[in-house]
Amino acid sequence: MSRRHIRGFILFVLAVVLPFVLSDYRVFQVTLVMVSAIALLGLNLLTGYSGQISLGHGAFYGIGAYTTAILIHKLGMPYGLAIPCAAGVCAILGFLFGLPALRLEGVYLALATFALGVVLPQILKYRGIEHWTGGVQGITLVKPEAPFGLPLAADQWLYFLCLAVATGAFACARNLVRGPTGRAIIAIRDRQVAASAAGIDASMYKSITFGISAMYAGIAGALAALTVQFVGPDSFSIFLSIGLLVGIVVGGIATISGAIYGALFIQFVPNMADEVSKAAPWAIYGIVLIGCALVMPRGIAGLIERLTARAFQFSRPHRAIPPQEEP
Hints:
Keywords: Cell membrane, Membrane, Transmembrane, Transmembrane helix. It is found in: Cell membrane. The chain is mainly α. The protein has helices at residues 3-21, 24-49, 57-73, 79-101, 107-124, 130-133, 154-178, 180-190, 192-197, 202-228, 238-251, 258-276, 281-295, 299-315; strands at 139-140, 230-231. It has a domain at 19-236. The protein has a two-stranded antiparallel sheet with strand order 1-2. Helix 2 (24-49) packs parallel to helix 7 (154-178) and helix 7 (154-178) packs antiparallel against helix 10 (202-228).
């Protein structure tokens, strides 16, 4: 068995045991970490691998959450069907939004997605659809219980549900990046003219990537709605989109594992900053961000990769160089 398989088996065992040894609140926090990791993974596919900057992914996160809440609360749909529906809605909207956005690049695309993130909370408060969205009051959900009579608490069941979805999401993203589609996306990011000359349809690949990224955000929003048991317009402000972008930068751009590190950062660092200073928690948060940018320019994933490579280099036995014979 290889070292990678051993490490994966150990992580799997830890993930299974974790909800039985932690308190309910810690289990809730770890569940939110997995939810954030799914959203960050989708944004990293778009920004890190495709090179399209998005400041509005919090909008797709909110659309996924509201779609799930409306289907469950208003239509009585089981959450097992509501989550795939939310993913499909966000994938279609992301693909359609990506079509006109292809005319924009760089900061102009970022501004267009920024507008999407700003306008969504106002749309959710609109009186014309208040019957469905709940207006400023939002929608309250009931935490689902474990099915089939499983001896699990509600928090533990949600933990395992999010763990299963996150595992599948990361496996799909890994296969996507390593496959022909991923190589085409990376080629478009690095050399779009050369990729187009090689026969790659840049417009179609960019739209598909936008749709996949939005689908990941919608899945994360659906799971967040079930975990938090509430959706409201102010929960999906532009600060959510900025926080997601911060997460992929700190975790590591164009890395799969960086989504996990970024999720840990955006989940726990703000709470730690609030504990350090009640008066100015955002100042502490900003100082930590600046420190991360200086110490880890490639993100946490890049730092861990560099340290691992250096440790492996030192652990390898050095072969003695035989003395050269004099002519």
